Amino acid sequence: MKKLVFLFALFTLSFHAFAINPSKQYQVRPEQLGLKYQTKKIKVSATVELNSWLFLQNNQNILI
Fold first, then answer.
1. 16-56 pLDDT, tens per residue?
2. Residues 12-44, buried b or exposed e (16+ Cβ, 10 A)?
3. H-type helices in the chain, by residue range?
4. Hey, how many other C-beta atoms are within 10 angstroms of the C-beta on 62?
5. Nearest CA among 14, 26, 22, 17 for reference residue 53
6. Helix, strand, coil % in the chain, rounded to nearest 5
7. Tell me: the pLDDT tens digits for 7-17?
8. Using 50, 70 and 90 to split pLDDT, how confident is the model at 57?
9. What are 17-26's pLDDT values in tens digits?
């Protein structure tokens, strides 16, 4: 039982480590999925900017 708890804790902590140090490369970009978008930078402070994507609406009527 102690091994199971230890493995669960180790598995859980590994997800937190990935969140702190995310991958620097995108797995999939919007153009690979056929999406229209614009790249925008959001200034958070004097020294920090976040990259973001603004997704554009297609000119098609889509019924979901």
1. 555 566 677 888 888 898 888 899 999 999 999 988 898 88
2. eeeeeeeeeeeeeeeeeeeeeeeeeeeeeeeee
3. 2-20
4. 6
5. 26
6. 35, 20, 40
7. 777 667 666 55
8. confident
9. 555 666 778 8
Tokens 């554009």: give the residue.
56
Give Cα 51 to chain centroid, integer Å: 11
Place of tokens 């920090």: 48
**Cβ-contact 38, 56 below 8 angstroms:** yes
Report the SS3 class of residue 28: coil
Looking at the chain, how many residues does it have?
64
Q: What does R_g of the chain's alpha carbons equal in angstroms?
A: 19
